[in-house]
Amino acid sequence: MTASSEKIRNFCIIAHIDHGKSTLADRFLELTGTVPQREMREQVLDQMDIERERGITVKLAPVRMAWHGYELNLIDTPGHVDFAYEVSRSLAAVEGALLVVDATQGIEAQTIANLNQAREAGLTILPVVNKIDLPNADVMNVKTELVNVLGCAEQDIIEVSAKLGTNVEQLLDRVVERIPAPTIGSGTGSRALIFDSVYDDYQGVVAFVRVVDGLFRRGGSVRFVATSVASHVLEVGRFSPRRVVTEELGAGEIGYIVTGVKDVRTVRVGDTIADAAVAPLPGYREVKPMVFAGVFCQEGDEYPKLREALEKLRLNDAALTFEPEHSPALGFGFRSGFLGLLHLDIVQERLKREFGLRLVVTVPSVAYQVTKTDGATITIHSPLDLPDPSHIQTIAEPLMRLDVVCPAARLGPVMQFITQRRARYRSTEYLDEYRAILHYDIPLTSLLVDFYDTLKSVSSGYASMNYEFQAYQAAAVVRLDLLVAGERVEALATLVYRDEAYARGRQIVERLKTILPRQLFEVRLQAAIGGKIIAAETIPALRKDVTAKLYGGDVTRKRKLLEKQKKGKQRMKLVGKVDIPPRAFLEVLRR
User: Fold this and answer.
1) Hey, which residues does 54 pair with through a beta bridge?
2) Structural class in CATH, domain 191-274
3) DSSP bridge partners of 394
4) 291-363 is a CATH 3.40.50.10490 domain
5) Contact between residue 62 and residue 208 where contact means Cβ atoms under 8 Å apart
6) Amino acid 439: pLDDT
7) CA neighbor of 469 nearest in space, from 364, 380, 398, 404
8) Checking CA distances to 344, which of 72, 151, 418, 430 falls within 20 to 30 Å?
9) Phi then psi for 330, rounded to 5 degrees?
């Protein structure tokens, strides 16, 4: 039987990366007896190998716990900025959030970003200071920061040690006491919001849902409102944290529904699953990828397998997009969209591990908006899509709102570094006398290459950052083409700022000269903008010793052979072609 909605509490844990979310979830599972002691391990809810290896949460993870007669539905969320969309989906399925802050580090950039999302969703927020057991914990200072940022009373903040279990029982009691019971919809039918889903080879699509109205039972008929596809419920259940079959899922509960649907495009995260034709529930804002890269197979015959793998991964990762692309250098593949470089890295790793694919991934780029002279606006994800310059009125690039939290003592070097990356200063806020938040507007392209690593370096490891899309702004960018032996190589084209074009062109041709294998003829390498050559290098010809077989005789025989070789090289220079291997293609585009 399902629990009464008055006895249900739905909540999630939000925090900056590495502030102890997963460890706190482990203590909850241990205290409530959800996971037997013999099965306990660190990061129980991080079920992917890649999460456990890197020590980060990538996917949201739901689990149901029992505590003093109450049913607690917890969703553990990621902390990294690239997975903020996972947090937003979790917030839509719950009524409350635990805002966890590390007692040794205080409020960080992602803490504030997650807090703002939770406030927008109208959730009840419980502030928690974690890691109070550490010798360098500054609990009073962190509590003061929370009071200033949240506007809460100091007695509302709970001090815990997730590692040792200190005050975790009191925190569970506070969840029951403060977080409201779920609001039940007034609809006559059964409706549930899909906040995540996975694909099972035997059961088809398994939808993770928050039930809003009515009941879902095995054998019932359901339909997906957005796609109007009908199906049957093969199984319902809860997360404990593994899937456990139950008789039914009632209003206010979080669980899963096995749909049996084999077409992964039918089920969308944010869609409503219902037992009749009903009005859809409010879903999520569609996530727009900001970083694009080409994903190709090392072996051409794996292309269908790559398509199937991406479709299954997109079911579990709503922010991933892809469309077919052909590269002269790499063959058939997909132009894929991601939220950031870590997102790209994780997707690449999952494709290799879960589907056994051997991949080649091109250098990341951003999406540009091009306004043509006829007034039409198009979005391009690749330099090859850029129209003829005579048809372009303006080109706009994505502008991000950047928030950097850093020690006041390192403000000078940090501000100098950010300004060098074409950022525009907005304001500075002080959390206390030792730490400040810097606000900037910055082009997304400036964040793509080693920005975070350099920021950590100039701040002595203390700075943290969060960014979100703000708008598109006009940018002076041009397409830089590479010519090899007089032929334009489309796969090597790239978009660069006009004032950086010469230096970038020079850098690429110099690198290309060291990477490309030498030919039997001289190879000219050129970087060009339109018809203008801005940088050039030459790969000298290989010298084959055509006189090796001579063993004496008249010197004119030797001259005749050398003259014949010279003419042959001139002819090859006119008609010869240079094959660019994929390894060279990637090396050239790596900054």
Assistant:
1) none
2) mainly beta
3) 371
4) no
5) yes
6) 93
7) 398
8) 418
9) -115, -5
